[in-house]
Design a protein that fits this description.
about 775 residues, 17 helices, 7-stranded antiparallel beta sheet, about 30% helix, alpha+beta, 9-stranded antiparallel beta sheet
């Protein structure tokens, strides 16, 4: 039985976040190691003949704002398309939708990769005793090796406090350090020049696949070298250092995003760093980074010495071969947190894009772009932020949502004649809110509403009423206003349904055999309409505002379609029990009812929970199943919510083993969605971390459930610092597969119910109180 125990009964040891290590330099992008400060990112290769650091910057966007992205005939044709769908003429409705509804982006743009900083070293014999590491605790990449009897070391990091990247190189023999410093291999138009201490690139983020080739931000890169000993001389656009004992290289990037001056920003960042000095810059970075990373510790059991000594890529390959490695899983959990910290900070100008902060140039040159996808990916990018104690990392996402709410008012009015705001399937740095440019994926009318749920999640975890009033509620209210106006009555049942819209990004077979995507009353729309309406009403009641709106919401919620179970036992994706045109499709947007929502739960709606499991099973069993990183992360959290730890672990393991690379960064597999090759995508890393958190702790604002989906393969361990809704921080220890003890700390007074299996305990906590629990 669950009961309160003395606090000292919980003895947990906080383990450091961990280390990725390799015994050779990277030869390709998926072997390089990522660093970032929330705006500037780098992929560090760690070569002995040449160091490559491929740069990315979150505001390095092509394209520009546009007011002509809506199809001018869309609003006129909407009533006719609805009539056709209600009448069962799906083929004609699909034809008209394809012709009139998609957006017409003129210069949508994409985030573009920047050139590389390269350091070319003199020829020498082969390097010996090579080691390359990424320390998740400090955010430092370190490279060390011996060559011709000299020990060389290199330290690279990207610092948020000073807004730049720093590289420190040392040698074990005085006067033996030499390299040529340059900026190379970029695709952006611009000029590279050099002074006595600095190499600079002055250019623009222009490209012509996703924009007109003439629009994009201006940018400047400056790479400055300071040497101890030796001499530096300039040769064209390259600096050559010879005979030094050590050197520090600073990398700064400025753009004209939001009206800034690229040159002044670069000069200012560099000036401050030079005045501060390397050691102080490094110390500030480590302290800042640790303040976030050390909030959460996870121990799933230590790896034996022979396993711990293996390079990280070898351990991942062993996992793919079916050999368990719980310590690697714990490292993967912290890696997702590390990438969140490195890619999205409270002062970041933009949130994590499809590729997070690290741009391999493949998404930006694909049919889809390195933008913000609103039908799963951007949401999944931030799933780990609140539960794993990184709430401030969501700040840039909230800024984007406020932009969408502003820009989306025009779209709602001009396209649908509706109040409030709407955003669809994709958006960009400029706040694009029109439908996507293609039918079959572009008409996701609840994409913005889905993303706005992150505002409510932030409030639920922290219960900051000022945040709710000033930032969350205005956005959520606007989303609710739009959905109330856009929903129409289904003439067959009198239910309120949305449409024409698409269930991202799936197609169905209409009764006449036609292959269609647009429909009325897609289940995903119902899930997110119910969510936004419920949250808006709860918020308004809490804030004591908008009584009339609350009344309208209550009436509308009563008329939303119920969930339905189809002929195969599956949760229906559409209002009617259509067969799927692509049974192996990767998207399961209607299972948003299971996660992030709790409209379907194994205890509250067991029949629907089983139907959700059938949906997952049918997708995987269909020929051509589209296994991608974000789907494996999806299935991990789905099964965690279904309280099935064994199935959750199976998909988590597949995520690490099958859809993550040598550097543990996740990828979208070549051959899926038009991708010619594997393309890095951030969402799997964040989603995997969120999945592990869900397996160990779940909360819904009333219940806090301990170890809800603990798999048998994790018989003992501990986690410290996870967050639960209501302002709670939780530590848990378990052994022999059973709860040992737990500690719950309350930031505010509240009443909760703690659950462990079938055991329930009602408790009331005062502000600042800590409750220790155990079995007895």
């Amino acid at each position: 039985m669950l009961k309160a125990v003395p606090d000292q009964s919980l003895r947990t040891v906080r383990v450091p976040p961990g280390l990725l290590h390799y015994d050779r330099p990277a030869t390709r992008w998926f072997e390089a190691l990522p660093i970032g400060n929330g705006r500037l990112g780098g992929m560090v290769y760690g070569g002995t003949d040449r160091e490559r650091i491929q740069l990315s910057e979150s505001t390095a966007w092509s394209g520009c704002p546009s007011s002509t992205d809506l199809n001018p005939t869309a609003r006129q044709l909407l009533p006719r398309i609805r009539e056709l769908l209600f009448a069962g003429d799906h083929a004609e409705a699909q034809r008209l939708a394809a012709e009139h509804l998609p957006g017409r982006p003129s210069s949508f743009g994409t985030n573009l990769p920047l050139p590389e900083v390269q350091l070319a070293f003199p020829d020498g014999n082969s390097a010996q005793r090579y080691r390359r590491t990424l320390d998740l605790d400090t955010g430092l990449v370190e490279v060390a090796y011996e060559q011709d009897g000299v020990r060389f070391t290199r330290e690279v990091f990207a610092t948020n406090p000073h807004g730049l990247m720093a590289i420190r190189l040392t040698s074990g023999r005085p006067g033996s350090l030499a390299f040529a410093l340059s900026i190379r291999d970029g695709t952006l138009p611009g000029d590279t020049t050099a002074t006595d201490t600095c190499v600079a690139f002055d250019g623009h983020a222009y490209e012509s696949l996703h924009s007109d080739g003439r629009q994009g931000v201006a940018l400047e890169i400056r790479v400055h070298v300071e040497a101890a000993g030796g001499t530096v001389h300039r040769t064209g656009d390259t600096l050559r250092l010879e005979g030094a004992d050590s050197a520090v290289v600073y990398v700064v990037v400025g753009t004209d995003w939001a009206g800034a001056d690229p040159r002044k920003r670069a000069e200012s960042l560099l000036s401050v760093a030079l005045e501060t000095g390397y050691e102080a810059v490094r110390a500030a970075h480590v302290a800042d980074h640790r303040s976030l990373m050390r909030r959460v510790s996870l121990d799933l059991g230590s790896a034996p010495p022979d396993l711990a000594s293996l390079p990280t890529d070898t351990r991942r390959e062993r996992l793919a071969a079916g050999r368990a490695d719980n310590a690697l899983t714990a490292l993967y959990f912290q890696y997702g947190r590390y990438l969140t910290v490195a890619g999205s900070r409270s002062d970041s100008p933009l949130p994590l894009a499809l590729q997070g902060l690290w741009n391999d140039g493949l998404a930006s040159s694909a049919p889809w772009t390195n933008d913000f996808h609103l039908d799963m990916n951007t949401q999944q990018n931030y799933w780990a932020a609140e539960p794993t104690n990184l709430p401030e990392c969501q700040e840039p996402l909230f800024g984007l949502l406020e932009t969408l709410a502003d820009q989306g008012r025009t779209t709602a009015q001009e396209l649908y004649g509706a109040p409030g705001w709407v955003a669809h399937t994709v958006t960009n740095a400029w706040g694009y809110t029109a439908p996507g440019s293609g039918i079959g994926w572009g008409m996701n009318v609840t994409g913005g509403a889905w993303l706005a749920l992150q505002l409510w999640e932030h409030f639920e975890y922290g219960r900051d009423e000022a945040f709710l009033r000033e930032r969350a509620y205005p956005v959520l209210r606007g989303a609710a206003e739009f959905l109330l106006a856009y929903a129409v009555e289904d003439p067959e049942h009198g239910l309120l349904v949305t449409g024409p819209s698409e269930s991202p990004e799936n197609w169905y077979l209409a009764p006449d055999g036609s292959r269609c995507s647009v429909s009325m009353g897609a289940t995903a729309d119902r899930v997110f309409m119910e969510a936004v309406l419920r949250i808006c009403a709860e918020s308004a009641e809490l804030l004591g505002v908008d009584a009339d709106l609350r009344t309208r919401i209550a009436a509308a919620r009563r008329r939303l379609p119920p969930f339905r179970i189809g002929r195969h036992g599956q949760l229906q994706e559409w209002l009617h029990d259509y067969e799927e045109a692509e049974p192996s499709h990767r998207h399961t947007s209607h299972l948003g009812a299971l996660f992030p929502e709790r409209q379907i739960t194994p205890r509250g709606t067991p029949d629907l929970a089983r139907a959700a499991e059938v949906t997952i099973a049918r997708r995987q069993q269909a020929p051509g199943w589209e296994q991608t990183e974000w789907v494996e992360a999806n299935f991990t959290v789905y099964f965690a919510r279904l309280l099935d730890g064994e199935a959750a672990l199976k998909h988590l393991t597949r995520l690490i083993a099958d859809t993550s690379e040598a550097n543990l960064m996740t990828f979208s597999a070549g051959g899926v969605a038009g991708a010619a090759q594997n393309i890095y995508s951030f969402d799997g890393n964040a989603g995997g971390t969120a999945g592990i958190a869900e397996m160990l702790l779940q909360s819904d604002g009333r219940d806090v459930e301990l170890l809800p989906a603990l798999p048998a393969a994790w018989p003992e361990g501990s986690v410290c610092g996870l967050r639960a809704r209501g302002g709670l921080t939780v530590d848990i220890r378990w052994q022999d597969g059973q709860l040992g003890a737990a500690r719950i700390r309350a930031a505010r007074a509240l009443a909760i119910r703690v659950r462990y299996g079938a055991d329930l305990l009602d408790v009331r906590l005062a502000e600042g109180e800590t409750l220790a629990l155990g079995l007895g």
